[in-house]
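Homework help board

Subject: predicted structure for assignment chain

Our instructor gave us this sequence and asked us to write out the predicted structure in token form, then describe one feature. I got the tokens but I'm not sure how to describe them. Can anyone check?
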Amino acid sequence: MKKQTVEPKKAASKRKPSKAKKLACVDLFCGCGGMSLGFMKAGFDVKAGFELWDPAISVYKANFKHPIIKQDLSDLDEAIPKIAKYKPDLIVGGPPCQDFSTAGHQDESRGRAILSIYYSQIVSAVRPKYFVMENVANIRKSQAFPEVLANFKKSGYGITQRVLDAAFCGVPQTRKRMFVIGALGAKDDFLGEELDRALAKKPMSIYDYLGNSLGTEYYFRVPTNYTRRAVFSIYEPSMTIRAVDRPIPSGYKGNANDSAPLSAARCLTPKERSYIQTFPKSFKFSGCKTDQNQMIGNAVPVNLAKFVGAALSRYIHANDKGEVNASR
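My token output:
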């Protein structure tokens, strides 16, 4: 009988298992990059940003190594092939929301409201496995929103809808935003439990996040009318950082609900406002003060984007079978 040879056992490899490949992501209506940076921090590989406004493009270029493409995203015939070229597993984006905003005109005839529909058409055409759309909470009442959802559903996406308050998501700011998150072939509300479980128990104050680094305990924010308070404390979440900011007007004489006398407060600088949007101190802004305030106020807070991205990443790692982009 032939003698059986026994092979010696191989020594266990000391090499650490390789990390899963990062999912490719593109950011539409990316502005200066709040959503891009947040999803990068959550572990996604952002391949490109798409934006039309030159001041934001300049800032994005100064802060990211991947390209930003100047593109009118309402030109679907031109935009879709450019986006599809990156073969994204995930498309994220915050179509301009001023037409839906309670701080804006709430007039969908002004034109920008339709950009959310274009976003849904781009996603439906490119068909990434996942998408994330951010907008103001008021979009739920818009005429465009049912069409947006119908486009996603028709393309086979399971949808999670959540209005998140940034103050419970690692941002020192009261800022309620609607997130519509989709996954091909998933059940509706597939990410809801993951998002809800990660919410903080209490809102984050400016002091919780920045300590005394602003050098003031009180700051001024121009109210929509003078019957409202305008002086706030760092020991509470910031009011929503808006796209416009003005010096203390001579007509404002104080309000009974102000946190301190007007003399104790000062306006925040654009850079300080960017900290409350959770941009890092190393993030470089340029352009005139008006442009900086606009791009900072319109940005998705970095940590809010990271919060959503991290929840999606946990879901993918728990449920995905390695079939990213299998639909294409």
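Reply (TA_rk): Your tokens look well-formed. For the description, you could write something like this. The longest strand covers residues 157-165. That's the kind of observation they're looking for.
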